[in-house]
């Protein structure tokens, strides 16, 4: 315990914002390609298959990229306004799997695209409201769009049923639950609707009214799902009974030490404690809270590891690569890779790597020591920074991992960056070289 | 009348072929032969000539004033100095061995054009200290005597050896220029003929009308003297029309005759165009003229167009009457008037004789020729050797060598016919490359004996023509050609090579009225036979429009590229001119910069050679009368000079002062001495006489010169900064180096110096950004490997510094103001050779050469590494990537002896080579990838 406190004090004093420095032996992304094509903020990335991904953003463009080469394969034009949601839908033919893209835009239209040809296969315009989220239920061959109303569509873009919403803000997230239920996150509540086949009987069960707007939903393993709210509440639900299983209120800044809050000049902004993103791999739930990260174990119903200040500003997207590796991206323009380590190692000395000549630095937020409430939790492990990817000059909105093929990040600076393993790439290039050599029959 | 010029036979010297066999012979193209005359001083020769450097002289044999110089290239009076151009013109024109035959041979009806091949001769004037390659050519001029105007182009140099040994190349270049001139001339001639024909037609019609009126006036005047005169006049005009038509046929048949000249490669497209144009003209005038010519009826009313009869019929002097059957035998009066006029009429200038486009293109070509032959033989040879070597390493040459691609073509073995109107690239002909000639080796003869490599198109046309012309009377334009042809008939086809058109035409006339259709079977399938409807209008173009005719004609025949091509030509020419100006000014600028010691060296040279030159000159002039014919022997002025500085001739055992050029293996000497101080005075001394342009950088004008200049900066950098080695390592291992500073000049200088170390800088240095004053982004880092960045104290500056710190992992920062360097540590040994701040190299160009050799060495290693299969890929299926990795590391460390950091250089170079190999022109749809690694940087201070 002593050690812990000491550690955190050290962290707080020397480097509240982590800086790993330039030596990153565990970071394998040693090559990058900058993909240009968008004219505005790129907000969404979607993996089409194992070598293609689609990006969409505020310019209404959807671009399809080859991740292996970095080529732009298709340019899907059609939306006049920013894209609000994008997802893939897979049609199973006899032989082939056909993946299409569904996009929703602020121009109140929905489109189905063929990423192979770049054609707009289907389109629906003049919806009552713009769609904010999409959910594809492959099993039932339907897909749902959520906005101010909840609509169910079949594969041919025919409206199956529609359900107007009572709330102002509309549905922000949709997940599929067992027994043909879906859960929709709406302002301040989670609704559940079921439908049986195409009969579309609905009933809504308002389970819980959160303190603030409920933002993120995610389906966890067997019979559980979780939701997170702007107030930093993380709630685990039973998916069949719809009752609350666990409640965790993550309050970074609710420090018992009153002095600290004074130093922090006022109350924390809501964004600093709101859950920005939730993700899970079944065992762990990763919540991005403000600029921090919070790993929660489903089995033990307890916090596994956390890092209060993982980024310089809000974390926008996270991903659990495995049970001990995770990745996060943030408004500060960086992507960071973390490892959950058992023993807290002494903090690395902050790299005083910069010249004296530009000794201005970023105004680093001084933040207080973490709340004792969290520290009190036993068996806590360490969230250790193993590498960061710096390249974007704007907020990194999202990233998609293609495992060994690389990582695609999209950002507010209109760029996508393809991060790759340099060694693998060089091996591939050598292979290509010798192939070409063989084709030519010599130099 | 003319003191017999020293005509030098171009013969090979066999005795040099028999050197003792080398046990370790280099490949032929790399072997550096002994300097051909081992006992001669290669640099002393220029000293006694009256001109300062080599130049190209164009002279003509004017029928009015005799030989006269027209222009020199470069067009600078300083070049020729006190050299008497008039006298030299006389001499070079007096050795015209073109087998020219002027006028028409007996037995033919019309004046014939003589198609003569150019002649080449090497001429020496030991008194003047001038030697010249002389290229004679003949242009056609309707107003000239015998329709020909003899010209010659001469490459005048003070070094005989240079001319002799560069004969092939000179011949090649001048043939190109000559072909270009002649092509333009044929065009202009055809135009002139056409104008003339139109005038004649007009005259004819007028006369016919008059005659008709007379006839109507009454039979009593039928046989009056006036009527007879009119009839005579008319007949005369008709005859003249026939003659001119025949001339047109002859000129259009120009291309069909076989060329004996191996170097006479013409642009096939030009030929086609010219041909079809002539066909068109022929067709047109055939249609108009024959009916009225033979029928004697009223003219067809072609009088609506054309000028009023100008110099209508006063042209052809000696006429003979056999050809045309209805010819009256009398001599026109106008002959006298014309021959009297011969001396007051103004002869056309060369520019008028050729199309303006062609003329300018020729001049540009000659300028280029002059430029490429600057420097002395030794320099030319080493440069060419250098290029030959570079060409061998195509895969890696992009890394550190300057781009060769421009001046590759002519030396690479694809001899492209020079085309004034800039036709597409597809029509070049593959020829053997002109061999590098330093010693007169046997392969010179080979080069001479390869006339078989004519372009296939002309070959086919020849054969076709021979088929066509088989049954026809054997009429050759020039008897000498004819005889030679029959001798050489083994070359191509056994048929007779008559000039097709004239043959056909004559046959027709002899047979009387044969249908016009017999003209139609045209050997050239491509030519457009249908006359353009707009043609007449077009033809009205008066002489002002003549300038643009090249473009117009192209438009008429080619149809689609009229204005563009002309514009292109013009703009290209202009660009050339500009470039030239730049080159000159650049060289002037450069000369003083070229470091104090360099100046001193050259001063030394001058002191050494100049005083010697004068007495030699006197001595030589004394000797001159006794020297009889051949200047093949050396002017004896040279031997004493060797006491002053030795050029490594084996006979002189006392190498005295700094200039030491061992005469063994020259390449070895260069590489050996390049490490020493002052060795590059071989370069500067080699052309000690022409100071204005330093010898380096003739080929790639700007870049190499800049690089040489940058060598000084790089040397200064290396000597000045103890952390230079780290900076160089950053650049060579692909880590972007940012030079930060407030003073633009200083940053730019540093960047220019460091740009030498940027691998694959691109043709125009795309990977280097000399001065940037805005914050950069990641894409900039990806694009540029060396950036000069402005340090500003403003909000903009802070955002720039922010980007610096943000991307600090990708860059190294050299602070020019505080002289610090922040970069990963380098502990390797590989670069100590070029980044030793206690180096003994004092001169920039020396350092540049030293650097070049080191970098070349690196590139070779990288090449080996890249293309060694087992270092990158598993040998067997069971091997994992780790095995390969360890093998690679083992190779780098143990076989190449490279440490961790040094390996990074090689890996980066290898990566570049791979990319270049996979995408040769660097163009792919995908974004370029940017590699980096995560290492800690440290700060180096002075």
TrEMBL record, chain A:
Please provide the record's keywords in A-Z order. Answer: Repeat, WD repeat
A GO CC term attached to the entry: lysosomal membrane
In its keyword annotation, does this UniProt entry include Repeat?
yes
GO aspect biological process, one term: regulation of autophagy
Q: Return the InterPro entries for the record.
A: WD40/YVTN_repeat-like_dom_sf (IPR015943), WD40_PAC1 (IPR020472), WD40_repeat_dom_sf (IPR036322), WD40_rpt (IPR001680), WDR41 (IPR040102)
Source organism's superkingdom? Answer: Eukaryota
Q: Where are the WD repeats?
A: 54-75, 76-123
Return the protein name. WD repeat domain 41
Gene encoding this polypeptide?
WDR41
């Amino acid at each position: 315990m002593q050690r812990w406190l000491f550690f955190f004090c050290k962290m707080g004093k020397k480097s509240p914002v982590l800086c790993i420095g330039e030596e990153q032996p565990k970071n394998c992304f040693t090559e990058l390609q900058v993909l240009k094509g968008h004219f505005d903020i790129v907000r969404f990335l979607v993996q089409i298959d194992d070598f293609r991904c689609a990006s969409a953003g505020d310019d209404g463009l959807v671009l399809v990229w080859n991740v292996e080469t970095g080529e732009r394969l298709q340019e899907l034009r059609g939306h006049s306004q920013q894209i609000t949601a994008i997802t893939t839908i897979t049609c199973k033919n006899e032989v082939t799997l056909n993946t299409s893209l569904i996009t929703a835009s602020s121009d109140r239209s929905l489109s189905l695209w063929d990423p192979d040809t770049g054609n707009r296969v289907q389109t629906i315009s003049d919806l009552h409201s713009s769609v904010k989220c999409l959910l594809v239920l492959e099993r039932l061959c339907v897909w749902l769009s959520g906005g101010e109303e909840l609509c169910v569509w079949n594969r041919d873009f025919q409206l199956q049923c529609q359900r107007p919403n009572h709330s102002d803000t509309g549905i922000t997230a949709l997940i599929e639950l067992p027994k043909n239920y879906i859960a929709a996150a709406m302002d301040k509540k989670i609704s559940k609707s079921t439908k049986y086949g195409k009969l579309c009987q609905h009933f809504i069960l308002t389970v819980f009214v959160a303190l603030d707007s409920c933002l993120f939903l995610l389906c966890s393993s067997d019979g559980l799902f979780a939701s997170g709210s702007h107030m930093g509440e993380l709630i685990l639900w039973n998916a069949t009974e719809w009752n609350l299983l666990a409640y965790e209120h993550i309050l970074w800044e609710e420090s018992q030490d009153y002095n600290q809050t004074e130093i922090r000049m006022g109350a924390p902004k809501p964004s600093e404690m709101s859950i920005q993103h939730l993700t899970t791999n079944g065992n762990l739930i990763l919540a991005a809270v403000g600029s921090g990260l919070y790993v929660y174990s489903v089995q033990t119903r307890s916090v596994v590891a956390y890092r209060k200040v993982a980024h310089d500003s809000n974390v926008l997207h996270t991903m659990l690569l495995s049970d001990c590796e995770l990745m996060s991206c943030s408004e500060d323009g960086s992507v960071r890779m973390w490892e959950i380590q058992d023993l807290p190692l002494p903090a690395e000395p902050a790299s005083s790597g910069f010249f004296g000549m530009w000794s201005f630095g970023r105004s680093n937020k001084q933040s207080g020591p973490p709340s004792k409430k969290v520290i009190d939790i036993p068996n806590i492990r360490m969230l250790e920074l193993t590498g960061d990817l710096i390249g974007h000059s704007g907020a990194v909105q999202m990233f998609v991992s293609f495992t060994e093929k690389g990582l695609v990040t999209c950002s507010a600076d209109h760029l996508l960056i393809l991060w790759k393993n340099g060694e693998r790439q060089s091996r591939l290039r050598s292979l290509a070289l010798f192939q070409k050599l063989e084709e030519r029959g010599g130099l | 009348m003319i003191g017999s010029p020293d005509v030098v036979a171009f013969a090979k010297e066999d005795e040099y072929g028999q050197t003792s066999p080398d046990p370790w012979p280099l490949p032929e193209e790399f072997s550096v032969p002994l300097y051909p005359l081992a006992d001669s001083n290669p640099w002393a020769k220029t000293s006694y000539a009256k001109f300062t450097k080599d130049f190209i002289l164009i002279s003509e044999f004017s029928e009015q004033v005799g030989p006269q110089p027209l222009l020199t290239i470069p067009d600078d009076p300083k070049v020729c100095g006190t050299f008497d151009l008039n006298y030299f013109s006389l001499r070079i024109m007096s050795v015209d061995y073109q087998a020219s035959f002027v006028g028409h041979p007996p037995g033919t009806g019309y004046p014939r054009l003589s198609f003569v091949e150019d002649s080449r001769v090497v001429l020496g004037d030991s008194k003047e200290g001038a030697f010249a390659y002389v290229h004679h050519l003949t242009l056609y001029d309707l107003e000239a005597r015998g329709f020909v105007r003899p010209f010659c182009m001469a490459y005048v140099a003070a070094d005989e050896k240079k001319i002799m040994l560069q004969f092939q190349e000179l011949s090649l270049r001048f043939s190109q220029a000559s072909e270009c001139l002649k092509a333009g001339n044929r065009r202009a001639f055809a135009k002139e003929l056409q104008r003339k024909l139109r005038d004649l037609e007009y005259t004819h019609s007028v006369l016919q009308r008059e005659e008709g009126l007379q006839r109507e006036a009454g039979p009593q005047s039928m046989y009056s003297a006036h009527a007879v005169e009119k009839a005579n006049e008319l007949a005369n005009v008709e005859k003249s029309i026939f003659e001119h038509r025949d001339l047109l046929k002859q000129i259009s048949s120009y291309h069909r005759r076989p060329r004996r000249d191996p170097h006479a490669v013409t642009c096939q497209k030009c030929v086609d165009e010219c041909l079809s144009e002539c066909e068109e003209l022929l067709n047109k005038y055939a249609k108009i003229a024959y009916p009225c010519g033979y029928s004697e009826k009223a003219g067809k009313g072609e009088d609506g167009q054309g000028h009023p009869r100008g110099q209508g019929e006063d042209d052809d002097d000696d006429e003979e009457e056999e050809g045309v059957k209805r010819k009256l035998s009398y001599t026109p009066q106008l002959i006298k008037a014309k021959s009297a006029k011969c001396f007051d009429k103004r002869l056309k200038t060369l520019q008028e004789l050729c199309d303006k486009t062609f003329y300018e293109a020729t001049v540009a070509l000659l300028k280029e020729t002059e430029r490429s032959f600057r420097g002395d033989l030794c320099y030319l040879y080493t440069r060419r050797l250098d290029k030959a070597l570079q060409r061998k390493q195509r895969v890696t040459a992009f890394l550190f060598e300057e781009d060769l691609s421009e001046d590759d073509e002519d030396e690479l073995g694809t001899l492209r016919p020079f085309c004034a109107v800039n036709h597409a690239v597809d029509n070049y002909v593959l020829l053997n490359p002109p061999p590098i000639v330093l010693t007169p080796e046997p392969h010179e003869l080979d080069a001479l004996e390869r006339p078989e490599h004519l372009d296939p198109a002309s070959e086919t046309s020849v054969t076709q023509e021979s088929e066509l012309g088989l049954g026809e009377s054997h009429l050759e334009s020039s008897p000498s050609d004819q005889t030679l042809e029959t001798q050489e008939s083994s070359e191509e086809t056994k048929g007779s090579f008559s000039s097709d058109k004239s043959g056909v035409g004559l046959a027709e006339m002899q047979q009387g009225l044969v249908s016009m259709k017999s003209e139609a079977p045209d050997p050239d399938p491509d030519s457009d036979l249908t006359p353009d409807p707009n043609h007449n209008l077009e033809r009205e173009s008066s002489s002002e429009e003549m300038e643009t005719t090249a473009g117009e004609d192209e438009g008429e025949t080619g149809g689609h590229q009229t204005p563009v091509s002309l514009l292109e030509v013009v703009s290209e020419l202009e660009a050339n001119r500009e470039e030239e100006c730049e080159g000159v000014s650049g060289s002037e600028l450069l000369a003083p910069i070229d470091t104090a010691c360099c100046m001193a060296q050259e001063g030394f040279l001058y002191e050494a050679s100049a005083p010697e030159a004068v007495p030699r000159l006197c001595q030589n002039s004394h000797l001159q009368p006794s020297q009889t014919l051949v200047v093949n022997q050396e002017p004896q002025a040279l031997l004493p000079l060797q006491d002053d500085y030795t050029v490594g001739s084996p006979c002189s055992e006392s190498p005295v002062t700094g200039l030491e050029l061992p005469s063994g293996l020259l390449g070895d000497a260069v590489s050996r001495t390049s490490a020493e101080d002052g060795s590059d005075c071989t370069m500067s001394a080699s052309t000690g006489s022409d100071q204005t342009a330093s010898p380096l950088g003739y080929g790639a004008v700007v870049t190499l010169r800049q690089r040489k200049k940058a060598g000084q900066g790089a040397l200064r950098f290396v000597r000045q900064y103890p952390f230079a080695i780290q900076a160089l390592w950053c650049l060579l291992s692909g880590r972007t180096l940012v030079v930060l500073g407030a003073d633009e000049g200083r940053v730019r200088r540093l960047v220019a110096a460091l740009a030498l170390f940027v691998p694959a800088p691109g043709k125009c240095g795309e990977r280097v950004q000399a001065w940037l004053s805005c914050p950069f982004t990641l894409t900039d880092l990806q694009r540029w490997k060396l950036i000069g960045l402005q340090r500003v104290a403003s909000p903009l500056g802070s955002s720039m510094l922010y980007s610096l710190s943000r991307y600090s992992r990708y860059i190294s920062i050299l602070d020019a103001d505080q002289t610090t360097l922040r970069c990963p540590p380098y502990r390797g040994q590989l670069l100590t050779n070029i980044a030793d701040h206690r180096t003994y190299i004092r001169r920039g160009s020396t350092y540049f050469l030293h650097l070049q050799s080191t970098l070349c060495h690196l590139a070779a290693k990288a090449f080996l590494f890249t293309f060694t299969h087992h270092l990158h890929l598993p040998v067997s299926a069971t091997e994992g990537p780790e095995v390969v990795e360890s093998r690679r590391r083992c190779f780098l460390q143990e076989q190449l002896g490279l440490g961790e950091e040094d390996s990074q250089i090689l890996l980066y170079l290898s990566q570049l080579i791979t990319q270049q190999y996979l995408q040769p022109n660097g163009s792919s749809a995908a974004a370029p990838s940017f590699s980096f690694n995560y290492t800690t940087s440290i700060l180096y201070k002075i």
